[in-house]
Structure formats: structure tokens, C-alpha cells
């Protein structure tokens, strides 16, 4: 058992008997300053854990919304170094909300794994989700991250069967991210009973919290998923809330941070009703 | 950098993790991992199955037209005044390139795995056409992802694929070239992992693809060995092939890697020159990184973002390279050199005039290197070049580059 901000957050949520709201957004989208304001607004709007997207030119597991967000961020000059800087700036005013960096391996590999882990730790990063590093590649980043005291959070999917689950869970810490379907980010949500069964299956193999993502867009969905999981991950809906207030020239027509806050407040309401719903 | 100690054999890779030294591997999303492992198990079984080998050989002979000839280019040899030049004529294969060798192998494997839907990526359209062809031959639905830019510059191949019953999906992300098509094919695969087989066209991607594609393409080098021994009574002094992803090259090179007296050269697309970003010389001007399931040399910026390359040849227009080539470069066994757009275009015309063979722009790059080297070699020396594709698909874009109207 590790002792990161993630572990502490889940302990607190267990005491409150409610699931976590995990919010993803892309660092640097639509620009550095706005993205930092969005990040700072998330905890107040009800986000329990922040997933900080690291933009990559070739996001193979992402749908059009997150692809476009990454392109906007890169166009605005976002780099891995700037993303770490954003986390550092956030930490100056918030030392409790866990930050999980999420993205693809190449920018980290090029930055240098040891240098990255040292800088991430100094910036107050608690966990990593790296889509293209399965357990077979654990020596690349997962094991060094654990050594540096950073959680390595693995994705489990509907194709991860009982035979494979132990391998996926072996070096996972913080929480398990269950991807509720085979597909790219932003697709449609499958039915809740299947998700519940999958969460139970994973929980048969681990004591870690299980968060569910891919396809959650509304407060009602967050409430339904939150009833059967330890956490609900929302990404594409947040990225879309930003895109929706950007004009054709890329300039904001309304405040993106406010748009995100409104959405997240609604989702947080859904998550907070989740266990009440099951108790009824 | 220190040169690594020379291995006992250059033909033993990859290891069990799919690595060629530090290159290769399985850098894919968890959704795909069970499938990749399943593919590997089926591939290991197929390799040992005489029935699989027999069916592939039968198709090679009667459908592809193998063995392809090894042709002595007498007039070109005379013109250059140096080494004797032979062409391995894989451009005479059914569908017009070496791509069919790999497609037949993989579709037999897809069938063994019980997959009912085929997807592929394509750049120039040669792999797309070959995939659409084998999908038609085996009665499986087929979707080909192709960059929107390539759809435009390779219109005849787009029509061919459609005629063959494939659905061609243009990809407008990025620059709309091969890299973007591969991203989109991977997204399709992640979504339809249950029933879909991803038929990768080059010796790259997650393990076991680089090994599998190499083994299917090695028929090229294996035939060359027999043919050159029959023609000359000895092995060649030099092998030359173009490298985009590197499947035709590894197919020619691999059977010769442990013949230390055979020099081997891979030719990359130098585009408009290596100074800027308008080239695809990942081995000469890139550095190791991770993309599309493997670690290999990539064109990328200092933040690890992948660049868009440029080449006159759509088939070489990819910012990466198969991982085994990265390893062969670092081990020093194979030399990799760039050839510029204009040099390839000149070679394209020279071969057409001297030998009556219109080459594809991809092997025209290899030919440009042969034109540089042959005059400096002795008349008793032998070069074998892989003429891996024919130029029918390129006549329209070549005309445009040469300022002619057709």
C-alpha cells in the first residue's frame, strides 16, 4: 500500500461513503493560462482527482475530441516541461487534490525517464497513466515510478480476462482504471449492469479502488456508474465543454473555466447522489 | 556512442519480448494486449505447421507468380561502367509490388484465428491494393485507412481498392499521410478488437508484426540467394533496397545478414534535403522513440512530438522505420543513406529509357544509390537491387514533377 494523495483521497471518500469524481482535461488547452485556471477551478467545482492530459501528436487511443484538444495545446506551445510547470503552479495553492498525469510514452521517454520522475515528484504529481505501456513493458517506466513514490495506474478493459487480470494488477497502485468498453475515448456508454459486473470481477482480484471511465457525459450517468464503482472518470465531456466555447478562430467566446466548472458541479452532484440511489 | 559488441549472428532477433536490442517491443494499449498475445501464439503455431507453409507456397507460385526473376540489367551495367547490376523483380508480382507476399501470409493467419474483418493502413496504396486483393480472394470484408493527401495523389490505387470491394476511409488528421492512417487503423482495431484482424503492411508495429512481416518477405532474399548462385556461382558484393517502413529491404537483407562479405545498404527518402523537415530519413536524421507499438528511430522534435515527413514517394512518407532496421543500423551491419527527391526522379527516368522498366518511385531511390556506387566498383563485382514495385501508379505524379501534361 502506497501513501500518496490518491490513497488519502480514497480513504477520505470511503469515510464519506461516496465515489470519487475523476476529471480529465488537456494541459495547455486552449492555452497555458486558461488551462491553469481550469485546473484551479476543478476542486472547488467538486472534482476529487485531477487527470492532467499530456498532449501527444499521435494519440492512438483517443477519439476526435481529445485529439483536437491535444492539437490545440501543441499549437499553443504546450510541452511536457510546461505541463509539469502547470502542476507546480497548481500545487502552490492546493496540496491535497491528487494529480494524475495521463498520456503516451514517447514525450516522457524523450524527456528522460529519471529526469521526468524527479521533476514530476517535485511538481507534486501523484500518479501516472500511460496508455501505451502494458505490463509487458513495466521496466520502462512503471517500476521506476513506483521506486520514485509515484502511483502507476493501469487500465483494465473488457478484453482483460481473468487469466490476464493478475498481470495487469501486479504493479498497479493508487486505483484501477476500468475502461468500460473496447474503443477510443468519447464513445457511447455501455449499460450499467455490465459495468457493475466488470467492477465486481476486478474487485475479486484486488483491494484497490476501481474507477470507471470512457463514455460518461452527464450527471445521471455519473450517478449510475458511481453506484457500482469507487470512482467515475469524465474526460471527453469536459474537453467538449472547452471546445464549445471556442470560436472558429480558436478564441474563447465565453470563459472556458466557467463552462468546465458548471459541468463539473453537475457531475459532482450526480456522484454525490450515487450511493443514496443504491440505498433507496 | 560506443559500438556494441558484434553479435554471433545478426539473424537471431527478436527476443521473447519482441526486442531487437533496445528496439521493437509491445507498446500498445491494454485493450490490444490480449489480441497481440493471441496473434503471437497463432503465429508461433503457424510457423511450425507444414500445411501453413505449403498453402502459402502454393499461393505464392500460382497467385503471385513466384519466384520473381533475377534480371541482369545489361544496358544499365554498360552505361554505368562498373559492377554488374541485377534486379530482383518483385514488381512483376500480382498487384505490382512485394506487398502481396506479406498480405497472403497474414490473411492465412487471420483465417486461422477466425477473424472475419480485415483492416489495413496504406500510404502509396500498394499495401492497400494488396490487402484488398487478398480480402477479395478470401471473401472477407476489408476497410483501408488512407491519408486524405495520399487519397488525392494516388487516385488510381484508390479506385483499384474500391473495385476490389474494399472500403477506403480517408483520414484528414495531421498531414493526411501514412502516419495518420496508421493511427486511425489502430483506433478501429481498439474498437473492433473482437472480430477484426489488423493487416499491417510493413515490418513495424508491436511484436510479433516486425518478425512476421520480415519472415513473409524473406522469400525475396531466399530466392535471390539461389538465383545469384545459379547465375554467377557466388554471392553478390552489395545489396541495395529502399526503406520506408522497411519490409522489402528486410526481406532482401535478412537471409544475407550473416554473410559478412556481402555489403548491405538501405536507402531512405531524403526528400528536399535533410536540413529542414522535408524528408523521411528517420535513421539518418531521427532518434529513437516510441510510436505505433514499437521503439525505433523516429523523426520527432525535442518534446517527443512526431513530425510529418515529406517524400516524393508516398510509400516512403513515414516518420519511422521498422525496429530491426534501427538495430541493424546501430550494430553497424547495414549502412543507411538518404537519396533526394530529384535523384530518385532522375533514376526513374534513366531506368525507363535504358531497360524499358518503369520502376515505382520507392525503388527509384534504391536505384539512385546504385547509380552512385556501381561506377566506383570493379566490373567483376555484383550488385543486387530489389526492384520492389512498378511505376504505373506513379506516372501521373511523375509527369507533374517533370512538368508534363497527360
TrEMBL record, chain A:
Q: State a single Gene Ontology molecular function.
A: tryptophan synthase activity
Q: Does the keyword Amino-acid biosynthesis apply?
A: yes
User: Which PROSITE patterns does this one have?
Assistant: TRP_SYNTHASE_ALPHA
Known function: The alpha subunit is responsible for the aldol cleavage of indoleglycerol phosphate to indole and glyceraldehyde 3-phosphate.
EC no.? Answer: 4.2.1.20
Top-level enzyme category: lyase
Q: In which pathway does it act?
A: Amino-acid biosynthesis; L-tryptophan biosynthesis; L-tryptophan from chorismate: step 5/5
Q: Which family does it belong to?
A: Belongs to the TrpA family.
Q: Which organism is it from?
A: Chelativorans intermedius
Q: Which InterPro entries match?
A: Aldolase_TIM (IPR013785), RibuloseP-bd_barrel (IPR011060), Trp_synthase_alpha_AS (IPR018204), Trp_synthase_suA (IPR002028)
- This chain belongs to the protein called Tryptophan synthase alpha chain
**Catalytic residues, chain numbering:** 51 (proton acceptor), 62 (proton acceptor)
Q: How does the annotation summarize its subunit structure?
A: Tetramer of two alpha and two beta chains.
Automatic annotation (TrEMBL), chain B:
Which family would the database say this protein is a member of?
A: Belongs to the TrpB family.
Protein's UniProt name: Tryptophan synthase beta chain
- Domain Tryptophan synthase beta chain-like PALP stretches: 65-389
Q: Pfam families under this entry?
A: PALP
User: What biological function has been recorded for the protein in this entry?
Assistant: The beta subunit is responsible for the synthesis of L-tryptophan from indole and L-serine.
| Lyase listed as a keyword | yes
Pathway(s) per entry: Amino-acid biosynthesis; L-tryptophan biosynthesis; L-tryptophan from chorismate: step 5/5
Q: Tell me the organism.
A: Chelativorans intermedius
Phosphoprotein keyword on record: no
> What is the E.C. number?
4.2.1.20
> Catalyzes what?
(1S,2R)-1-C-(indol-3-yl)glycerol 3-phosphate + L-serine = D-glyceraldehyde 3-phosphate + L-tryptophan + H2O
Cofactor list: pyridoxal 5'-phosphate
- Reading the lineage from the top rank, the first entry is Bacteria
Modified sites of kind N6-(pyridoxal phosphate)lysine: 99
EC class name: lyase
Subunit: Tetramer of two alpha and two beta chains.
Extract the GO molecular function terms from the UniProt entry. Answer: tryptophan synthase activity
Coiled coil region boundaries? none
The record's section on InterPro entries has: Trp_synth_b_CS, Trp_synth_beta, Trp_synth_beta/beta-like, TrpB-like_PALP, TrpB-like_PALP_sf
Give the keywords, sorted.
Amino-acid biosynthesis, Aromatic amino acid biosynthesis, Lyase, Pyridoxal phosphate, Tryptophan biosynthesis
For this protein's source organism, the top of the classification is: Bacteria, Pseudomonadati, Pseudomonadota, Alphaproteobacteria, Hyphomicrobiales
- Entries under PANTHER family matching the protein: TRYPTOPHAN SYNTHASE, TRYPTOPHAN SYNTHASE-RELATED
Amino acid at each position: 500500500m502506497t501513501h500518496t494523495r490518491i490513497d488519502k483521497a480514497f480513504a477520505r471518500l470511503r469515510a464519506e461513503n461516496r465515489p470519487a469524481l475523476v476529471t480529465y482535461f488537456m494541459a495547455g488547452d486552449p492555452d497555458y493560462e486558461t488551462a491553469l485556471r481550469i485546473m484551479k477551478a476543478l476542486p472547488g467545482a467538486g472534482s476529487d482527482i485531477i487527470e492532467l492530459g499530456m498532449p501527444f501528436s499521435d494519440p492512438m487511443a483517443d477519439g476526435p475530441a481529445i485529439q483536437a484538444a491535444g492539437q490545440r495545446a501543441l499549437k499553443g506551445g504546450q510541452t511536457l516541461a510546461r505541463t509539469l510547470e502547470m502542476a507546480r503552479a497548481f500545487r502552490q495553492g492546493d496540496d491535497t487534490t491528487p494529480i494524475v498525469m495521463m498520456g503516451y510514452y514517447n514525450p516522457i521517454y524523450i524527456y528522460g525517464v529519471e529526469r521526468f520522475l524527479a521533476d514530476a515528484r517535485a511538481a507534486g504529481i501523484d500518479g501516472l497513466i500511460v496508455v501505451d505501456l502494458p505490463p509487458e513493458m513495466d521496466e520502462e517506466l512503471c517500476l521506476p515510478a513506483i521506486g520514485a513514490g509515484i502511483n502507476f495506474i493501469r487500465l483494465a478493459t473488457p478484453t482483460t480476462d481473468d487469466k490476464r487480470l493478475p498481470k495487469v494488477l501486479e504493479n498497479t497502485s493508487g486505483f484501477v482504471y476500468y475502461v468500460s468498453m473496447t474503443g477510443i475515448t468519447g464513445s457511447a456508454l455501455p449499460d450499467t449492469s455490465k459495468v457493475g459486473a466488470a467492477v465486481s470481477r476486478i474487485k475479486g482480484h484486488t483491494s484497490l479502488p476501481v474507477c470507471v471511465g470512457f463514455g460518461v457525459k452527464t450527471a445521471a450517468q455519473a450517478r449510475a456508474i458511481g453506484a457500482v464503482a469507487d470512482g467515475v472518470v469524465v474526460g471527453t465531456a469536459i474537453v467538449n465543454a472547452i471546445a464549445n466555447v471556442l470560436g472558429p478562430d480558436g478564441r474563447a467566446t465565453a470563459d472556458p473555466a466557467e463552462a468546465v466548472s458548471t459541468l463539473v458541479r453537475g457531475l459532482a452532484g450526480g456522484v454525490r447522489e450515487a450511493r443514496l440511489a443504491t440505498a433507496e | 556512442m560506443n559500438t556494441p559488441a558484434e553479435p554471433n549472428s545478426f539473424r537471431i532477433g527478436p527476443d521473447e519480448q519482441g526486442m531487437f536490442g533496445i528496439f521493437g517491443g509491445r507498446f500498445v494499449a491494454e485493450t490490444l494486449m490480449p489480441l497481440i498475445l493471441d496473434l503471437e501464439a497463432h503465429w508461433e503455431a503457424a510457423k511450425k505447421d507444414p500445411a501453413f507453409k505449403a498453402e502459402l507456397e502454393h499461393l505464392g507460385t500460382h497467385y503471385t507468380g513466384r519466384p520473381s526473376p533475377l534480371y541482369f540489367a545489361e544496358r544499365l551495367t554498360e552505361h554505368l561502367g562498373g559492377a554488374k547490376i541485377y534486379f530482383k523483380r518483385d514488381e512483376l508480382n500480382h498487384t505490382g509490388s512485394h506487398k502481396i507476399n506479406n498480405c497472403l501470409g497474414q490473411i492465412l493467419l487471420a483465417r486461422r484465428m477466425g477473424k472475419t474483418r480485415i483492416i489495413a493502413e496504406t500510404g502509396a496504396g500498394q499495401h492497400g491494393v494488396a490487402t484488398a486483393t487478398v480480402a477479395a480472394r478470401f471473401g472477407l470484408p476489408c476497410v483501408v485507412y488512407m491519408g486524405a493527401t495520399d487519397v488525392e495523389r494516388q487516385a488510381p490505387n484508390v479506385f483499384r481498392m474500391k473495385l476490389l470491394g474494399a472500403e477506403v476511409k480517408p483520414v484528414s488528421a495531421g498531414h493526411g499521410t501514412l502516419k495518420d492512417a496508421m493511427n486511425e487503423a489502430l483506433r478501429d482495431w481498439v474498437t473492433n478488437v473482437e472480430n477484426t484482424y489488423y493487416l499491417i503492411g510493413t515490418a513495424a508495429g508491436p511484436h510479433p508484426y516486425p518478425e512476421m512481416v520480415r519472415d513473409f518477405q524473406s522469400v525475396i532474399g531466399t530466392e535471390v540467394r539461389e538465383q545469384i548462385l545459379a547465375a554467377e556461382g557466388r554471392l553478390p558484393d552489395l545489396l541495395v533496397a529502399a526503406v520506408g517502413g522497411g519490409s522489402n529491404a528486410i526481406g532482401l537483407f535478412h537471409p544475407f545478414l550473416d554473410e559478412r562479405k556481402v555489403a548491405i545498404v538501405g536507402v531512405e527518402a531524403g526528400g528536399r534535403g535533410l536540413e529542414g523537415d522535408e524528408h523521411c530519413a528517420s535513421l539518418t536524421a531521427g532518434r529513437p522513440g516510441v510510436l505505433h507499438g514499437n521503439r525505433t528511430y523516429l523523426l520527432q522534435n525535442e518534446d517527443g512530438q512526431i513530425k510529418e515527413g515529406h517524400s516524393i514517394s508516398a510509400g516512403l512518407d513515414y516518420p519511422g522505420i521498422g525496429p530491426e532496421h534501427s538495430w541493424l543500423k546501430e550494430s553497424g551491419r547495414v549502412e543507411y543513406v538518404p537519396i533526394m527527391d530529384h535523384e530518385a526522379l532522375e533514376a526513374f527516368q534513366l531506368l525507363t529509357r535504358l531497360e524499358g522498366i518503369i520502376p515505382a518511385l520507392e525503388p527509384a531511390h534504391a536505384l539512385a544509390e546504385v547509380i552512385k556506387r556501381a561506377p566506383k566498383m570493379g566490373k567483376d563485382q555484383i550488385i543486387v537491387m530489389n526492384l520492389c514495385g512498378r511505376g504505373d501508379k506513379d506516372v501521373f505524379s511523375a509527369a507533374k514533377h517533370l512538368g508534363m501534361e497527360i
